[in-house]
Each structure stands twice: as C-alpha cells, then as structure tokens.
Amino acid sequence: MLALDEFRYHPRLLEIGGIALVLFASPACGTCRVVEKRLPPAVPEGTHLFKVDVQKATGLARAFDIFHLPTLLLYRDGHFHARLDCEITAAALRAAMARALAAPPEEEP
Fold this sequence. Notes:
With 109 residues, this protein is of the alpha/beta class.
C-alpha cells in the first residue's frame, strides 16, 4: 500500500489513472490493522491501493468527514466514485466496486 498525505492526495490519484482504493486508517485502530492485512489479496488485479494514516493526515481526514475507521474510498482516473462499505473479501469487494463504478462519478464527501 502506498502512503498518501494532504499534499499528494489528488495529484497522485490523477497521475496513476485507472482504479484506486484509498484506505483511511489509524495504526491505533485494531480493526484498521485487520482490514489492512485482508485488503491486498482481496483487491482486483490492476487496482492501485493507497493508505492515509489519519494520525498523520488529520486535515485530510477532516476534509473527507472521516469519523469511522477504517474507511475505503473508490476512485477511477482521479474521480471519486463512492465510499465503500462492504466485507473485505474478494467477492464482496469486487461486487461493491462493480456497482459503484457502474454509476457516474460523485462529488467527494
């Protein structure tokens, strides 16, 4: 997982193109640590995976109204599509991503 912060968040998502998942998490959060381990093998091939440490990037977490951890945000070509709320298994994650990507991009929270 590549780290993102306030300064490189949007530019990096635009640079990479394609589909990106951004995990907002904290090292102090037990559930976040579990999701961080389960996420890489569940993510479809070709999907870029990023992590925002909310303890270091508090401004970014506030800007996105991140109050519950962990939180997953889905992007395609730098455009926000959805906040994903699903079980972290390959099947559930792929289904949630497919539903969200079938719709047009949304405004970021």
